[in-house]
């Protein structure tokens, strides 16, 4: 949920609560105010009636409500003495122009008692009041309108004002999303005077700068280390070669030397692969031309012919289309030769490799005694399932690095006991 | 034949020197830019092995100095940098070959001999050893004046062995030279063995007076019978 909508959500809930409570309090306050002003009027009316009844005793026998809203009834002294002024809400039947018959209408009534010439009377004075249900209806109606106009106002403010305020943030975020470590050259930057955003920008950029430095250092370290290892490895191999040439070795000594040499060979291969990886990541190959994948595949199949026939592995090539890709020719060769070599070397006797070239894809599948590989792990450097192979564990990592460099998609799947690697050359 | 090796790493320099001396070359050495300049301008060599990264100077500068002087020595660049740029630059400046560290001594030896062989043959492309004539350009192999059909890889193997005559060629060096990266897997030495076995059969059946000897199961050596 977007921040904008989140804030609308919370604000609308709180406004609903505030408006509801406010409406309740407002209603009761207003009702009290109305009642107290009516009560004052009733009090005044009471005095006038008592005064009038001293002159006009006929009033004392008025025991029903007519056009003047009061009744007087004679009562016992004891009862009269216990009477205190009481205000109460009650109803009286009244009729007006739009009523067919009298209807109960809310009235405020004062019940009191007074003494006149030693006789005690009960006086009821009434005054018509606002209809509470009408009042509530009106108030509810207004409240709903108030609520709606507040929400509309807030949505409006959010959309037009907050969006404008948050714009630098979203700009920054979209730049950050596109940021790729070691690829994006400039740090994300937006122009803003909002302190929070400049703080965020500074914090993020400090972090990015530090990370980039570490990344560069690490990359450089791998490159330098591999590079520095070349000469000692050359010396070691050559020393052993000279030692063997000198002769006078026992067979078991020669075997040991052979073993050491093959270990050094392996180191050399790992080292070369690391150097290649570093170069790919440093973008030292960007001599992009249109490369015919068909030709690269044909050349590599040709080069592998001796080895595949020695291993009794048949390579079938299905060219459904001519596939050309704009990329560095030597990297195209690295991808294809690595995939084909893997397909041949991890095969079994009498196995097969099927290479399928379509308009946008190349699929290389092979039989193997190996079970399904873990597609999440195989592209990680130095991952070697079973640890049997003498490989460097870098072949697929190199393919992945090249694919990443050009935004190709590489995938692995296992179907009908065939291991399938597919590269989509679409960006 | 006089060869100058310019290399700053003393152990590597010794290895190269020792290997080249087995070929009966006269080997001189230089381990920094100035001593290299001194030697180059005073003496004449048949071949110069040149490391690109030298103390107090760049090998490529040295190369252009040399070419400016109009010297026609054969030059093989040795570099720890496997960079296409450097290679192209070096070759454009007039180097004859470019070898990347780490290398097998057999490979270095083959490159040196190939360069010298080109010079020695002076336009000719054929080479005679025992009862064999090998045409490097036409890629033909004749034994007792009879053409023997070799496939591409078999010819490469024979040629490599001839450049390393009487010298040890390890299986790894051979595999790398002939099959490139495709054979850079230790469990493919069986494959190399199988190829050599076939080649031996061919050489034997046509009575070639050369033989590919096994050396401790690590490598091979081509000798004249």
TrEMBL record, chain A:
Catalyzed reactions: ATP + protein L-histidine = ADP + protein N-phospho-L-histidine
Keywords: Kinase, Membrane, Phosphoprotein, Transferase, Transmembrane, Transmembrane helix
Matches recorded under Gene3D superfamilies: 1.10.287.130, Histidine kinase-like ATPase, C-terminal domain
Documented EC number(s): 2.7.13.3
SMART domains linked: HATPase_c, HisKA
Any one annotated GO CC term: plasma membrane
Span of domain Histidine kinase: 224-427
InterPro entries attached to this UniProt entry: HATPase_C_sf, HATPase_dom, His_kinase_dom, HisK_dim/P_dom, HisK_dim/P_sf, TCS_sensor_his_kinase
GO molecular function, a single term: phosphorelay sensor kinase activity
Transmembrane feature ranges: 7-28, 144-162
Presence of the UniProt keyword Phosphoprotein in the record: yes
Protein name: histidine kinase
Species of provenance: Galbibacter orientalis DSM 19592
High-level lineage: Bacteria, Pseudomonadati, Bacteroidota, Flavobacteriia, Flavobacteriales
UniProtKB/TrEMBL annotation, chain B:
PROSITE patterns: OMPR_PHOB, RESPONSE_REGULATORY
Domain of life: Bacteria
DNA-binding region(s) in UniProt: 124-224
Alphabetized Gene3D superfamilies for the sequence: 3.40.50.2300, 6.10.250.690, Winged helix-like DNA-binding domain superfamily/Winged helix DNA-binding domain
GO biological process, any: regulation of DNA-templated transcription
Gene Ontology MF terms in the entry: phosphorelay response regulator activity; transcription cis-regulatory region binding
Record-listed 4-aspartylphosphate modification sites: 51
Residue ranges occupied by any Response regulatory domain in the UniProt entry: 2-116
Domain OmpR/PhoB-type residue range list: 124-224
SUPFAM superfamilies: CheY-like
UniProtKB keywords: DNA-binding, Phosphoprotein, Transcription, Transcription regulation, Two-component regulatory system
Pfam families: Response_reg (PF00072), Trans_reg_C (PF00486)
GO cellular component, one term: protein-DNA complex
Name of this protein: Response regulator with CheY-like receiver domain and winged-helix DNA-binding domain
């Amino acid at each position: 949920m977007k921040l904008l909508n989140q804030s609308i959500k919370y604000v609308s809930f709180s406004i609903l609560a505030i408006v509801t409570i406010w409406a309740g309090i407002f209603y009761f306050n207003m009702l009290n105010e109305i009642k107290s002003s009516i009560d004052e009027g009733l009090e005044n009316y009471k005095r006038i009636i008592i005064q009038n009844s001293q002159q006009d005793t006929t009033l004392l026998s008025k025991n029903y409500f007519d056009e003047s809203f009061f009744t007087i009834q004679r009562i016992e002294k004891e009862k009269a003495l216990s009477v205190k002024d009481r205000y109460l809400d009650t109803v009286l039947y009244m009729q007006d122009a739009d009523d067919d018959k009298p209807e109960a209408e809310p009235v405020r009534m004062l019940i009191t008692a007074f003494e006149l010439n030693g006789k005690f009377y009960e006086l009821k004075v009434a005054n018509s009041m606002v209809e509470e249900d009408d009042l509530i209806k009106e108030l509810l109606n207004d409240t709903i309108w108030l609520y709606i106009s507040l929400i509309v106002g807030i949505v409006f403010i959010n959309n037009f004002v907050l969006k404008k305020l948050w714009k630098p943030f979203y700009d920054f975020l979209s730049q950050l999303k596109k940021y790729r470590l070691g690829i994006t050259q400039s740090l994300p930057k937006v122009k803003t005077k909002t302190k929070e955003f400049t703080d965020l920008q500074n914090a993020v950029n400090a972090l990015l700068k530090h990370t980039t430095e570490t990344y560069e250092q690490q990359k450089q370290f791998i490159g330098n280390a591999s590079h520095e290892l070349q000469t000692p490895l050359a010396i070691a191999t050559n020393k052993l070669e000279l030692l063997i040439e000198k002769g006078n070795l026992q067979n078991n000594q020669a075997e040991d030397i052979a073993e050491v040499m093959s270990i050094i060979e392996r180191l050399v291969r790992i080292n070369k692969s690391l150097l290649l990886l570093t170069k790919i990541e440093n973008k030292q190959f960007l001599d992009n031309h249109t490369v015919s994948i068909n030709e690269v595949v044909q050349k590599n199949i040709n080069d592998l012919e001796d080895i595949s026939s020695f291993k009794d592995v048949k390579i079938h090539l299905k060219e459904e289309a001519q596939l050309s890709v704009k990329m560095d020719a030597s990297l195209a060769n690295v991808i294809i030769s690595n995939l084909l070599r893997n397909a041949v070397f991890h095969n079994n006797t009498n196995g097969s490799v099927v290479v399928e070239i379509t308009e946008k894809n190349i699929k290389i599948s092979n039989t193997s005694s190996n079970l399904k590989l873990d597609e999440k792990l195989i592209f990680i450097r130095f991952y070697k399932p079973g640890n049997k192979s003498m490989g460097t564990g870098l072949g697929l990592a190199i393919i992945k690095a090249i694919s990443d460099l050009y935004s190709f998609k590489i995938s692995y799947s296992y179907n009908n006991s065939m291991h399938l690697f597919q590269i989509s050359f679409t960006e | 034949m006089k060869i100058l090796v310019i290399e700053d790493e003393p152990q590597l320099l010794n290895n190269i020197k020792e290997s080249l001396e087995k070929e009966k070359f006269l080997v001189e050495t230089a381990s920094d830019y100035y001593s290299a300049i001194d030697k180059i301008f005073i003496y004449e060599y048949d071949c110069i092995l040149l490391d690109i990264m030298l103390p107090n100077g760049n090998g490529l500068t040295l190369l252009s100095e040399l070419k400016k002087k109009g010297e026609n020595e054969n030059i093989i660049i040795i570099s720890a940098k496997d960079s296409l740029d450097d290679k192209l630059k070096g070759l454009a400046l007039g180097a004859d070959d470019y070898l990347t560290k780490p290398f097998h001594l057999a490979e270095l030896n083959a490159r040196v001999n190939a360069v010298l062989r080109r010079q020695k043959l002076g336009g000719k492309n054929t080479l005679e050893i025992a009862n064999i004539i090998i045409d490097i350009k036409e890629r033909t192999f004749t034994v007792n004046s009879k053409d023997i059909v070799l496939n591409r890889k078999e010819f490469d193997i024979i040629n490599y062995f001839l450049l390393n005559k009487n010298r040890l060629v390890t299986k790894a060096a051979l595999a790398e030279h002939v099959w490139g990266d495709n054979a850079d897997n230790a469990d493919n030495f069986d494959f190399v063995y199988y190829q050599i076995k076939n080649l031996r059969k061919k050489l034997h059946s046509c009575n070639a007076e050369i033989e590919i000897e096994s050396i401790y199961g690590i490598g091979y050596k081509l000798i004249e019978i």
